Amino acid sequence: MAAPICKSSDYKLTSLHDVQSNTAYLGDASGYNWVASGTPVVYNDEALLLTMAPDTVGTLLMGTHYVWYGKISATMTTSQGQGVVTAFIMMSDVKDEIDFEFVGVDLESAQSNYYWQGVTDYNNGSPIQTTNTVSNTHTYTIDWQPDYISWSIDGKVGRTVNKKDTYNSTDNKYHFPQTPSRVQLSLWPAGLPTNGQGTIAWAGGLINWDSPYMQNGYYYAQVKEVSVECYNPPSNTATNGNQAYYYLNSEGLESDVAIGNNNTILGSILATGDNPEFKPKSKTTDGSKPTSTPETVPGISGGGSQQLGGQQGGSNPASPSGSATPGSSPVGGGPSTFEQGHGSMTGQASTVVAGSAVALVGFFVAALMM
Q: N vs C: which end of the chain shows fewer Cβ within 10 Å?
């Protein structure tokens, strides 16, 4: 599916008015700038909390507009505790990825990483030192240019990777993120006992659901603001409109991306880029009464809460008002495993709908993730 084109903006994340559930969003970026799974919570009218309660897989917040080169910043604090990972990443529909990841047992550094088309090259990561990521609010910036990526914290560049240094002589391609990507912020449990031992070790151990770091019954990370500055597309880009990115073929390289006025909106939650107008017919169990909506949603079966909690936090995350419970019963009966990003040393898989090439949830893996 074609993806909504980049929009430069400064987003103050102070309410849920601009956030739609991932089971309702079908690719119309004119109505909402953010899509969420799990339970984001409004905190004191000044930030959104990404929450993670026991028996859930946390919260994911995704931009509806894609970015094809640009400067993207998130002003935030992270969660903490063994097995707890906070992330600010860019992810494309062909699994190009640029990461800031924060492991809850290391509060003095941010892990920078990048991947090309989901290839799990574990030599791409590097830590960037900073001050306490939980008690101090930092602004993390990804400056993604066609020929380099830099990672900055509070305006200070901590790492730069040049595209010319990513050339792979085996397939004669640059293993460099180069396709339209979505902003994604998340809090997720890398330390689930059902995850791989490598993932658990990377995350600092098994997650503790009785941790003193939990407040009001959940772990949380706080996101105050996200800014996006769109850069011009490459000069040789095929252009026949200005509304959407789309792929000319399945190679998934920079030269295969075009810009047009293509439709980005799916006909139903079960439609795909190959069949965007698909609307399932109601099945009956007794010849007369239609069944309810599908029990699971492709690509997010086993994921966290489907609802947007909509809670209003008080002066302390431990005492929000409202009755919504962060991370209510998972879709499909609960996760068997959950891994997000490549810091967890796992591959990616395609997911559902989002007005994107294949997915609503971008990086959520059908087998291992939401």
A: N
Neighbours of 263 (CB within 10 A): 17
Alpha-carbon distance values, 122 to 115, 126, 239 (Å): 9, 10, 36
Alpha-carbon distance 103 to 227, whole Å?
Answer: 23
| C-alpha dihedral, 140 to 144 to 150 to 151, nearest 10° | 20
Which of 97, 225, 277, 339 is labelled catalytic?
Answer: 97
Reply yes or no on whether 251 is catalytic: no
Residue of 46, 101, 254, 295 marked active site: 101
Decide: 274 and 350 in contact? Cβ < 8 Å: no
On the question of pLDDT at 306 being above 50, the answer is no
Q: What torsion do the CA atoms of 129, 224, 94, 232 make, to the nearest 10 degrees?
A: -90
295 among known catalytic residues: no
What share of the chain in percent tops pLDDT 70?
76
The domains of the chain, with CATH numbers, are 3-235+293-333 (2.60.120.200)
